[in-house]
Write a structure and sequence with these properties.
Layout (H helix, E strand, L loop, with lengths): L2 H17 L7 E5 L7 E7 L2 E7 L6 H15 L7 E5 L4 E5 L6 H7 L5 H16 L10 H4 L4 H19 L6 H19 L3 E4 L8 E4 L2 E4 L6 E4 L2 H7 L8 H15 L6 H28 L10 H14 L3 H18 L2
Antiparallel strand pairs: 1-2, 2-3, 3-5, 4-5, 6-9, 7-8
Helix pairs in contact: 6-7, 6-10, 7-10, 7-12, 8-10, 10-11, 11-12
């Protein structure tokens, strides 16, 4: 989008804000967005501000899910931004301004001694999220979008298509491709065979913000019914923050103590976490490859190395060579194209 197009859209946004009876902003600043097609603006009104989430088209089912999930989470005590008002035709939702401090930024600007406290708060927020009931959600998109074996498998195929083939330029032989698909299926079977809870789906350091020492959840519109260790894998094996292994180990010990009744033993729990990490991190590589090749957005590529390190660590922890051997080989081939 060129500068003329941005200015045109900003005029549309300002006019819509006037119709929404919000204070006319003295300044509208386009913020760096996420991996979606939405745009975000900070509207400054003297000493106050709010955030404008711009879908760039009339509000649709995705926006409706955002509103529904946001209201449901708030009802059950999960900190989320307030919705001030919306304009359906223009595709705008005006939200509480939570500032600019994500958990990622807090970690990067903190001394190491403060990080355990931050992640203790993250875990408490996750426990509140997992305790949220879903039966009384009108329309129940949480159930309709529930994770399934087929969904997990499709995300691994997406990784293969967009990261391995398109981004790395690797062509897989039919025999190796068959080995990989078998490994993917084992990973999916292992993950799906866990108790399901309310999951965020992208519970990582960029989707939790700090305001007045309170952790606020954002980007929750894709929340769904999912495996109980999925969100834990997302934030402990995060692409954007690489935690010390000792801290991950102690966090898993706390998690196991809270969930031990759901697993056969500690070894069973650790394997399920490992499979969750492998699926989640491969899926993230697929997203980064897609952003780079299809969306021409290369800013996520700096985090590829962290994902490789996560995957290698978790694969070494597993004792299933039908999974580890083909995926290790695939990562090795991809690494040759990445880190020369």
């Amino acid at each position: 989008m060129n500068n003329g197009e941005i200015s045109t859209r900003e005029r549309v946004v300002k006019a819509a804000l006037g119709r929404m009876r919000l204070k006319e902003p003295s300044r509208l600043t386009l913020l760096k967005g996420d991996a979606s097609s939405r745009k975000f603006y900070r509207a400054m009104c003297g000493d106050t501000s709010y955030i404008v989430m711009d879908y760039t088209h009339p509000l649709d089912d995705n926006a409706e899910d955002f509103i529904l999930v946001r209201n449901h989470l708030s009802e059950y005590g999960v900190a989320v931004p307030e919705i001030y008002c919306l304009d359906e035709d223009t595709g705008l939702i005006a939200l509480e301004d939570l500032g600019d401090i994500t958990i990622q930024k807090a970690v990067e600007s903190s001394n190491f001694s403060l990080i355990p406290k931050l992640y203790s708060e993250l875990y408490l927020l996750l426990k509140r999220l997992h305790a949220v009931p879903i039966n009384d959600v009108h329309g129940n998109p949480i159930i309709e979008k529930a994770f399934s074996n087929a969904k997990f498998f499709s995300e691994l195929v997406f990784f293969e298509d967009h990261f391995i083939r398109e981004y790395c330029g690797i062509t897989l032989s039919p025999m190796f491709s068959s080995e990989l698909r078998h490994a993917y299926q084992i990973v999916c079977d292992e993950i799906i065979d866990m108790p399901f809870v309310f999951t965020h789906r992208d519970y990582h350091s960029r989707n939790v913000m700090l305001k007045n020492d309170i952790c606020y959840l954002i980007d929750f519109q894709d929340a769904r019914w999912g495996p109980i260790l999925y969100d834990a894998a997302s934030y402990l094996r995060d692409a954007y923050v690489q935690l010390p292994e000792e801290m991950i180990k102690s966090s898993l010990e706390i998690l196991f103590n809270d969930l031990s009744m759901l697993f056969k033993n500690r070894r069973h729990f650790r394997a399920k976490f490992g499979y969750s990490c492998i699926q989640r991190n491969l899926k993230a590589l697929g997203t980064f490859g897609y952003q780079a090749t299809v969306r021409r957005n290369s800013r996520y590529l700096r985090y590829v190395r962290i994902l490789f390190e996560h995957l290698r660590f978790e694969l070494k922890m597993l004792e299933n060579h039908r999974v580890t051997t083909p995926i290790f080989r695939l990562l090795s081939d991809a690494e040759k194209t990445q880190f020369k």
